[in-house]
Amino acid sequence: MDRFSLCAIFILVLSVCTICSVSNVHAVEPLSTLCSYQYGNYSANSTFENNLKLLLQSLASNTPITGFNDTSVGNSTAQVYGQALCRGDTNSTECRDCVKIAAQGIMSQCNKSLDALIWYERCQVRYSVMNFFSLMVYTGKYTDSNYPRNVTANPARLYSHWIYMMTNISGEAAFDPSLQMFATGVVNFTASRAIYGLVQCTRDISASDCNSCLRQALGDLRTCCYTREGGMILSRNCNVRFEHYQFYNGPVTSVLTYHYSEGNRWKKWIIVLVLCVLGSVSFVVIGYCAVFFSRRRKDEFDDERSRSALFHDYAAPVGVAITEAGDLVSSDELPFMDLTIVKAATDDFSSSNKLGQGGFGAVYK
C-alpha cells in the first residue's frame, strides 16, 4: 500500500472521528438551565452580544487550567460578567469540552437573556449583565433525573446514612482549603452496598457561605429525595448529589463508617427495658385475674353447696322438743334448722326476702 493510500485512509478516519465527536457534543443535554429575563434582553449583533461571545471563548480557554474561572468583558452597559466551574474530578480535557458545550447550550437555550446559567454533568457556566462575583444567592433546583430513581423500602435508614455522609463532606469542602471546595465520600449501608456522595461550591464565595449553601441544598435534597436511592440539587453557588453507585472519578475524599450514637444505643436499651417491664406487669395482671376468677368460681361453688344442703334439710327436716330442764331434743313433728342455714336461705335476713311481721317476729321466705 503506497503513501497516498495511507494518507487517504488516515484523513477518512479522522473525518469520521470528528463527525462522531461533534454529534456527541450536540447530543449532550444539560441537567438544567436558568434563563432570567429580569434585566431584559440584549439585541442581536449588539456590543453586549459580541462581548458575550468573547467571554464564553475566554471561559472555555482558561477554565481548564484550574477548573474554575470568573472574568468580565467590556465596560459600562455592555459589560458582561461570566463564570465557569468544572466538577472537581474532571481532567483539563473533559473540562474544556464541557465548557465549550455549555457555551453553545447557554446561547441557544437562553436566547437574548441578559442573565443565564446552565448546568451539565461535569460543568456549569453562567453570565450576567450584573456583577455576581463573591455573592452567594441560594437558588436550589431539582433535576428531572431525580424522579426515575428507585424508591427505597426503608427511607429513614437510608436518609440517616446519606445525610451523615453528606454533612461530613460538606464541612470538609467548605473549610479545608486543600480541597478547593470539592469533596466526595462513601459510607457503608449494608454488607454489600454503599452510598456515594459529592458536594461542590464555586470558589469565589467564602467558606461560611459555601457551608451555608450546601446545608440549604441538603435540606432541598431531603425534600425531593427522602424516599429515593439517589438525588441531586443544583444551585448557582453549590451542587450536591448522592447515589448507590460511584458516579465520580478519582479517589474518594472521605471513607466513612456509620455508627449509631450512644444516645441511640441508650434509646434501644430503654425501649427493651420498657418492654420487659410492660411484659412483667402484664404477667402479674393476668396471674391476678386468674386467681381472682378461680376464687370467685370456688365461692360460687360453695354457695351452691350450701343451697343444696338447705334444700336437703327441707326435704328431711329434723324435729326437736324442749324438756322440763329446758334442753332441746329431737322431734319428728317439729322441724329444726341451724342458724347458718336460715341466714343462707334468707340472704342474711335481707329485707327483700321479708314476707311480713308476726306475733313472734319477722317472717322470711
TrEMBL record:
Pfam families in the record = Stress-antifung
Q: Where in the cell is it found?
A: Secreted
Q: Which CDD domains match?
A: Gnk2-like (cd23509)
Q: Which UniProt keywords apply?
A: Membrane, Repeat, Secreted, Signal, Transmembrane, Transmembrane helix
Q: Where is the signal peptide?
A: 1-27
Any single Gene Ontology cellular-component annotation: extracellular region
Q: Could you tell me the superkingdom of the organism this chain comes from?
A: Eukaryota
Query: Where is the Gnk2-homologous domain positioned along the sequence?
Result: 30-132, 139-247
List all membrane-crossing ranges.
Answer: 269-293
Predominant location: secreted
KW Secreted (keyword) present: yes
Does Transcription appear among the keywords? no
- PANTHER family named among the record's database cross-references: CYSTEINE-RICH REPEAT SECRETORY PROTEIN 38 (PTHR32411:SF43), CYSTEINE-RICH REPEAT SECRETORY PROTEIN 38-RELATED (PTHR32411)
Q: Which family does it belong to?
A: Belongs to the cysteine-rich repeat secretory protein family.
Q: Would you tell me the protein name for this molecule?
A: Gnk2-homologous domain-containing protein
Originating organism:
Punica granatum
